[in-house]
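JOB MANIFEST
job_type = single_chain_structure
chain_count = 1
residues = 157
[input]
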Amino acid sequence: MSETGRIRVAKDKAELVQSLTSWNAATGPFQTFADVVVFAATLGKKHNRRVPLGEISKREPSPIKVETFASMGYDWVIKLIGITETKDIQILSVTQEESQTQRNHIFEEYANGGLEILQTELRGAVDYSERLLLILSSERFKEDKKDEEFNLSKFLS
């Protein structure tokens, strides 16, 4: 389980997270590691891809304090993913350390799943920003097409 108060990144995804930020002279589309992790977690949740972390990155990005996410307004994403996964309101408890640990663990695994998706989607890309825009656009239009689909069942009685 995750150590309370920190969000960890899998060691095999650390380089991807670094390359997606403007950290250490990189020109990635995100400003912080927390931005990347939140984006990846929501992508992982959308695609229902929850993947255990395995070995944890000890260097950049080292485990990120939950306070960092809270200061950026992202703590609600961690809570929302936790409650949608468990369907249990107790996961939101601020007094039970076990609830926070469970929320963080769920969030980390969805982030890891989202980072796996990004690894695949960004493979060979020169400009990550452009590729991310294409991914987001295709998701948006995929949903629009579902709404526009012609349905013959209304003619059957």
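[summary]
The CA atoms of residues 38 and 74 lie 7 Å apart.
The helical segments are 14-19, 33-46, 66-71, 75-86, 97-122, 128-148.
exit_status = 0
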